[in-house]
């Protein structure tokens, strides 16, 4: 069975979102990055595409060139799905063009800059029937998926309270300076739409609130904070949300929660119990009940749902971050092979392996001799 | 600059270690998996190689075939480095053969089954000068690297106490049953060498004890536990270690710490402070001093060393596991594209993106109208 | 210097609030419980007073009897301050009567059942100038005091965001049953005033919001939840609060956060940093900044303010709960002395002390002999 | 039923251990402090006794005077039990004298300075049959008691691994200076017996190891650290302990674990599960099993044993430290009554109570008017 042919728009150079999508695409051996336009500067794009090992003729000048060339290829060579990783205001035109030309789409959030545009995409997709994903990344965590399943199965009963927080502090460092705040694209409605804080992170909280409960929110009442008269974009806000008269909630988002990083926390309570999850420690799902000890669920255990287990790659107790740990070691080795300067300890050398074997033998030796001291290095 | 050509021995089918190495190799766009022998069953190996998108003629029957064919290729096509992911007892012969034929080697731990074999590899490598890495994976974590640097810079002063623990509980489920314990390959010295617990996880603790301090351990005194007379392999042990008369330590390892997963903890104390790190929550490094509040360091911040920052791919506050979260979403999309059955919520659909845009606009609307309720779905 | 003579109204039998106030009064050797009326049943009150070791003639039938008798005593014998621990609706008349008769007052919260009554007490106190404390207990924690001081000293700069949560789940077990909810005094406006959740715990959050910031809240916007039409009292609510246009906050309180105990959390952010504290782990104060590692302050350290240190009785690292641990041991001993049935292990017997001395000597012996096994029990 | 008459030797002035014992004695209303000798300076002792509210003639010059006078009192007036809170080397002679004169004894640890002395006390007690408690305080924590019960009931099955740590860092600040270390009484064998670290805290770990398992340790193998040649006392050590050939353990104690406060942790594993507890967060008991989520038990819940519940004074979710919080507030009030200078916020004044009532009413008002802003201060 062949891999899915994936195109990428944007995400070149050091783009973090680019790395994230490429690693994700490689993770389960389902995708092959086949082509793309990675940068508005065509030269840079070409260099980047080469670094990824792409054929020269699948590295495109822009989306138009890509669509034209790919559409002329036979169906079994053609890019099937395209990841849109460009600046926010380009999401809409690009996604639209891709849909209209028969591609599946993976689009970074926010989907568009206005609700109006979003509805247009929806209408087109209804005709084309394409796959169209918006990468609200957090819903992919194994314990978030487990939480969704437990709620669906009635583990916490009928929900009456939802509390979601997404606190960051990064904008504090520039909001208090008039010069700085007038020069930040995030605070410029032309580039970022009508909202900064709600648009960037409040929307994650909202998506989670509907994803987990499987229920639509009915109405909202918001109090936002702009902090300065001359600042046109919210940087903090509390939103009262109502699913129904008896199921209420609150979404809290901030970019001036100074010192917070990505403190995204979810708490949902029903008449049989509660569930809590925190993005910064994503491997723990807390299940509260009235009469039993607090239970902490972790990924990979048989007690989890298939939906959760499908997303766990390693046995219990390895934080998913171990991929990165191994990735860093491969990076160290690559630097060594390429004769780059390397950090001492960038990867464990043969010498460490030899000492490891010595340790094992000497340790067993100490025990067998009656728990006595044994020298290493003999 | 072209990618490094990587070969793989073993790691086929559902091998977890295989996934881990492939994801790691892809992470920084430095490697291209070029060939390999993934399974002793050649048919299975071929299917697997195809799934990875390899050329048919770079999928080999065995290591001999691979070495012969690759050696005949021009230097700029030839596999440069090989990852050895086979069962432990094959590490030695394969690594030896690879070294002797001019390949760089990445070898899973334990390096060999005896100290003697390890010393042979060391002697060969001294002649060839190849890159040879042993994947003690944990040394790749950003906060472990930061810990090493802080110790090297004297942040905790002269070290006088090292305490390392690696507790698992998995063998408890089979050790108490005579039948089961006699049929486990881990407890068979023929297949696993002379030690189970120390050989598998104690060796990680030992490696960490030397990696972090930059100092060699002088001697050991061990008390191991075999629990049953008929069990030839240790499954638990405490090892007193001595760097010098005034710098002492203890390594504790267990596979009968029932209920533990991979509870690998490191504590190092010197005359100016202490440092602590836990593998199951790898993004936190604790720095203790006598007269200041406890400090908790996290990856990606400017206060970290270059060595640590080089291994961080995302801004602070995203657990490295977010790669997996995104990976799971790409998997969901792949299943949709391939028309496989999918879990509801396996990826966020366009519909979620549309609602997100609605939420943002309605929220700002509520605020601007004076903090009043606004209906969604209009 | 003699102790302060303390009278107590209510708090008899197994009253938890009674135990709490008595232990607190004894803690620093400043008070002597001199008299009181502990129960509406005079017999029970007399027995209880005797148990406390009070003189018979200082155990009173009711507040009237107490005030009359005490007022006739010479000033240096007379009760100086009275703790009002009776049901909520009695707080107002009792506090009023005490103030009017020249006593200092310590009153449990809520102060009264209406704002009107509260203002009356305020007016009287302005004339008498008495000491009048309302026991918002949480402000007495050392780390809460440290937080107040740090904010006052500008450590987190100008405050722009306050987020306080008090979540409990206890009312979930009775709110869903029509019978039960109509028979709960907490849900009866006659007995509990106009509010259940806000009145009982929201008020703690509000007090903390003003205590810590040293600033008054200007206005509120609330969304409460009653869950059932026939329930007249709020059991959950979110309150938007505003200090000023640029300093906003949110108070969240719930009694249907199923499974929560007393999850009272405080987060305050300013332009220089943030501070966080959680009541269920009260010895940790988290200080966040933009460019330094997270700092965790603990009680008793010299880096704390005098205000905080004054309230710490033990060296760092002993949770304040160690008083209770020792208290439990004294209880075990009391039961033994009084020949009550006792739990095995209720207190450490001499035998344990003997073994402790043996352990010390044998351990040193093992070391001195060169790290060898030494038998105990010789 | 009258209170138990308690005498106290030592513990005067600012003695922390004195405060701890007095608060504990008062906690359940079982004891009345009746007399004592609090200081070797009789004047100071008298002042201190007066502060405690004792009769002048029950404040004694020394233990001899106390024993003589009390022995002459009728049995129902006489001190029944005496707490020995004097320096370590006085424990033995005082406890001996008290036993020989018919008193019950509560003795601080370590019981004596030698194992020999301890055995003498044991022999005397066997004749007198007195109550004799040694205050290994930690065994009084509710969750430690719960742990003991669960082990006794077989919840974690047959124990095969015990791991106990008591790490402090305080001696680091003086051990590295030759002058300082030679002038510390803790490091002087004349005053402190043969061991510093093992004698002071290792003994707590040992006691816990036997208390929790209900099983005696058979033998030990120790490696201690003295750090400097001229230091005669251990300040760090690891002790291998053996209950039997298949139940092994390790006790780790240190006073040079720089930056640690009272990091006393207990881990016990059996063939059905594991239990973990940490002294610095004493309200959490962790129960690990192989196939279920981690369970966290907390005090006061019905799922706990009677033995544990007997030692819990408050409903779940109030850390036991809340006694101290209330104690601090009573202290603030005392200072106000006595006209001492006071810290702002030292206790919540009537004003705070008034605002609390206003908050409740205005909040309900906002909700009832349809979630609108309502000003406070009207």
Question: In brief, what are we looking at here?
Answer:
Chain A has helices at residues 16-27, 42-51, 63-72, 88-100, 115-128, 142-152, 172-175, 178-182, 189-192, 197-213, 306-310, 322-337, 350-368; strands spanning 4-10, 31-37, 81-85, 104-107, 132-134, 159-167, 219-225, 236-244, 247-254, 263-270, 273-278, 285-288, 294-297, 373-375. In chain A, strands 7-8-9-6-10-11-12-13 form an eight-stranded mixed β-sheet, covered by helices on one side. In chain A, strands 2-1-3-4-5 form a five-stranded parallel β-sheet.
Protein architecture, described:
The structure is a homotetramer of 378-residue chains. With 378 residues, chain A is of the alpha/beta class. The first copy, chain A, has 2 domains: 4-137, NAD(P)-binding Rossmann-like Domain (Rossmann fold, 3-Layer(aba) Sandwich), CATH 3.40.50.720; 141-314 and 348-368, Dihydrodipicolinate Reductase, domain 2 (2-Layer Sandwich), CATH 3.30.360.10. Helices cover 37% and strands 22% of the residues of chain A. Chain A contains 13 helices and 14 strands. In chain A, strands 7-8-9-6-10-11-12-13 form an 8-stranded mixed β-sheet, with helices on one face. In chain A, helix 5 links the parallel strand 4 (104-107) and strand 5. In chain A, helix 4 runs parallel beside helix 5. The longest helix of chain A is centred in the C-terminal third of the chain and has 19 residues, at 350-368. Chains in contact: A-B, A-C, A-D, B-C, B-D, C-D. The interface between A and B is large, with 149 and 149 residues. Chains A, B, C, D: Residues 6-136 form the Gfo/Idh/MocA-like oxidoreductase N-terminal domain. Chains A, B, C, D: Residues 144-275 form the GFO/IDH/MocA-like oxidoreductase domain. Chains A, B, C, D: It comes from Christiangramia antarctica.
């Amino acid at each position: 069975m062949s891999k899915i042919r994936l195109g990428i728009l944007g995400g070149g150079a050091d783009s973090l979102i680019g790395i994230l999508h490429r690693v994700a695409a490689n993770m389960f051996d389902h995708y092959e990055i086949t082509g793309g336009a990675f940068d508005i500067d065509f030269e840079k794009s070409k260099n980047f595409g080469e670094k990824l090992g792409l054929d020269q003729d699948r590295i495109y000048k822009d989306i138009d060139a890509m669509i034209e060339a790919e559409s002329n290829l036979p169906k079994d060579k053609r890019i099937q799905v395209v990841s849109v990783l460009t600046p926010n205001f380009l999401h809409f035109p690009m996604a639209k063009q891709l849909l209209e030309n028969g591609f599946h789409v993976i689009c970074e959030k926010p989907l568009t800059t206005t609700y109006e545009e979003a509805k247009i995409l929806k209408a087109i997709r209804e005709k084309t029937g394409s796959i169209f994903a918006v990468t609200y990344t957090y819903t992919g965590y194994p314990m978030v998926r487990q939480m969704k399943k437990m709620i669906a199965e009635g583990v916490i009963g009928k929900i009456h309270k939802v509390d979601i927080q997404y606190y960051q502090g990064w904008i504090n460092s520039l909001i208090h300076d008039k010069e700085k705040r007038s020069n930040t694209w995030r605070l410029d409605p032309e580039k970022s739409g009508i909202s900064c804080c709600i648009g960037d992170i409040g929307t994650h909280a909202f998506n989670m609130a509907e994803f987990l409960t499987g229920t639509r929110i009915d109405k909202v009442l918001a109090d936002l904070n702009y902090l300065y008269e001359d600042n046109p974009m919210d940087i903090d806000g509390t939103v009262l949300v109502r699913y129904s008269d008896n199921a209420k909630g609150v979404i809290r988002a901030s970019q001036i929660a100074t010192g917070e990083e990505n403190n995204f926390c979810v708490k949902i309570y029903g008449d049989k119990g509660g569930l809590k999850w925190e993005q910064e420690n994503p491997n723990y799902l807390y299940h509260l009940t009235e009469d039993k000890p607090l239970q902490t669920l972790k990924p990979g255990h048989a007690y989890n749902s298939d939906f959760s287990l499908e997303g766990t790659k390693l046995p219990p107790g390895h934080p998913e971050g171990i991929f990165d740990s191994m990735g860093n070691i491969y990076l160290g080795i690559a630097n060594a092979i390429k004769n780059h300067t390397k950090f001492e300890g960038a990867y464990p050398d043969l010498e460490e392996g030899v000492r490891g074997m010595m340790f094992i033998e000497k340790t067993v030796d100490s025990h067998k001799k009656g728990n006595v001291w044994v020298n290493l290095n003999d």
